[in-house]
Design goal:
Distance between the termini: 54 Å
Number of strands: 0
Number of helices: 3
Largest sheet: none
Length: 75
């Protein structure tokens, strides 16, 4: 079976681990079922169509740049 590796922020991992414990599963099993459920609920093509063009709404958008420019932090 192919393997997918992902990095989760600590708070999200704690939620996944707790939910997995409640259902008596390993975190990876719980995550796989959650992903399968979500893909059945909202197919990726629907999500991609919904997001199409959103990055072009703001000219010169840089996803890496801070929301507040560094020079404005002291104000």
């Amino acid at each position: 079976m192919p393997t997918l590796s992902m990095h989760l922020p600590a708070p999200l991992y704690k939620k996944v681990r707790a939910a997995a414990r409640r259902t008596k599963q390993k975190p990876s099993q719980f995550a796989r079922q959650a992903i399968e459920h979500e893909l059945r609920r909202v197919p990726p093509a629907v999500t991609m169509r919904a997001l199409a063009g959103t990055a072009s709404l703001v000219p010169n958008y840089d996803p890496v740049a801070p929301v507040i420019p560094l020079e404005d932090w002291g104000q």
